[in-house]
Amino acid sequence: MTTSKDKCYGSVKRIPGGHYAAAAVLLVLLALLLLPGRALPAQDAAPLILDAKSDTTDISLVRGQEVQIVLKENPSTGYTWNVLQQDPEKLVLVRKVFLPPEKTVPGAPGKARFVFKAIGSGSTTLELGYFRSWEGGQNAAEHFQLTIRIE
């Protein structure tokens, strides 16, 4: 005589306490993902968004994480933000875009948004300069610099 505990459902035999075993396996996997000291996977790391107040600061990123730098820019005067120093083995420029001013007043400044992605590990310096292209970076009117540690 068979009982409900011995019944076979399809080709899988029901294991007493099977729900508890599956839950235990899931808890162990979750605990491994949340161990202290583990960095977030790059796809889960939110982009870091900085502005002029972050000049000369130190930041930390994980490989694959992006950092966005937003600075006031007025290209109608000839001045634009440009990369002066960057280690391309650790940090790559993904894009630079100009965000027009909110008010459409002639000569009003907009914003430059740089998006960099951490691709290597170690420490590096990123330096941006605000200058007119025909004058060159050595005559930059303003500088923006970060020290970046990539894990």
Tags for this model:
1 helix; globular; mainly beta; 43% strand; 10 strands; four-stranded mixed β-sheet; 11% helix; 151 residues
What does this protein look like?
The protein is mostly beta strands and 151 residues long. 11% of the residues lie in helices and 43% in strands. The strands form three sheets. A four-stranded mixed sheet has the order 3-5-8-7, with no helix packed on it. A four-stranded mixed sheet has the order 4-10-9-6, with no helix packed on it. A two-stranded antiparallel sheet has the order 1-2. A hairpin with a 2-residue loop joins strand 1 and strand 2. The longest helix is centred in the N-terminal third of the chain and has 16 residues. The N and C termini lie far apart (63 Å). About 15% of the residues have low confidence.
Main pleated sheet: 4 strands, mixed
User: Overall mean pLDDT score?
Assistant: 83
By DSSP (H or I, 4+ residues per run), the number of helices equals: 1
* End-to-end Cα distance: 63 Å
Radius of gyration: 26 Å
Structural class: mainly beta
Question: Runs with pLDDT <50, length 5+?
Answer: 8-13, 26-30, 32-42
TL;DR of this structure?
The chain has 1 helix and 10 strands. With 151 residues, it is mainly beta.
Chart the SSEs and their pairings.
Layout: E1 8-9, E2 12-13, H1 18-33, E3 48-50, E4 57-61, E5 66-73, E6 79-85, E7 91-99, E8 110-118, E9 122-132, E10 142-150
Parallel strand pairs: 3-5, 4-10
Antiparallel strand pairs: 1-2, 5-8, 6-9, 7-8, 9-10
